[in-house]
Amino acid sequence: MHNSTELKELSQALAQFQTLVSDIKKDGHVDVLTREGKKYSYDYATLENLLGQVRKLLAQQGLSITQHIEGECNKSVRITTLLLHNSGQWLQSSLDLMVEEMRGKGWIQSVGATISYGRRYALMAILGITQSEESPEDEGEGDIKKASPKRINAPVKTIPVPAVRPSSVDDVTQHFVLEPTLNELKEIAFEKLDTEGIAKMLEYYKVGTFHELTEKQALQAIKRLKTKV
Questions:
Q1: How far apart are CA 152 and CA 145, in angstroms?
Q2: Closest Cα partner for 225 from 178, 189, 197?
Q3: CA dist., res. 25 & res. 159, Å (int)
Q4: What is the pTM of this model?
Q5: Rounded to an integer, what distance in angstroms lies between the CA atom of residue 40 and that of residue 108?
Q6: For residues 186 and 40, is the Cβ–Cβ distance under 8 A?
Q7: pLDDT digit string (tens) for 156-185?
Q8: Cα 7 from Cα 13, distance rounded (Å)
Q9: What is the pLDDT of residues 76-124, one digit of tens each?
Q10: Coil, strand or helix at 116
């Protein structure tokens, strides 16, 4: 992580912003079909929705956000997020993500999805905000197609988010699971476990949903499931 020599005014502005902003509502929905023909789904906050909810509040505190994208030989992307204050103070973080071609998507679409995913989580991390656990489906916002597997009504655990997150991939994944890992875990879990088994797995990690797992927990769960007969 890089930052200006002084951060006092930026820190005060960011703290004030965090008292005003609400958790970002999940307005996006994805239905995923596994290779074995099974389905699962998840909700998420789109980048457009996220930016729409924070831009005005940031501007009111003299803050702004810019994000830059760099690539390396079509294998990875680096997302650099810069939080600026009108005093000239700034805070910068970078996140490197591997690009994998997703099932049912072309290479360009896979790159775009990876960038969008990384921008969302990098932005939430540097601002210290989270997605709401209340989905648009519960509020009647739009016609959302339900996936075959029923949602697991396990207790939802709220994970506290620090005001300023570290910038390295290792630090970010202490709090978030990356999308390729999440998709792999869901696919294996729905293949090898029934609803009760999935609920027990989430209970073991003391979370209510797949999205609350960390990258380390998700990789550990994948390893265990792969050895499960």
A1: 17
A2: 189
A3: 16
A4: 0.57
A5: 24
A6: yes
A7: 333 333 333 334 444 444 556 777 777 788
A8: 10
A9: 888 999 999 999 999 998 888 888 776 666 777 878 888 888 899 899 9
A10: helix
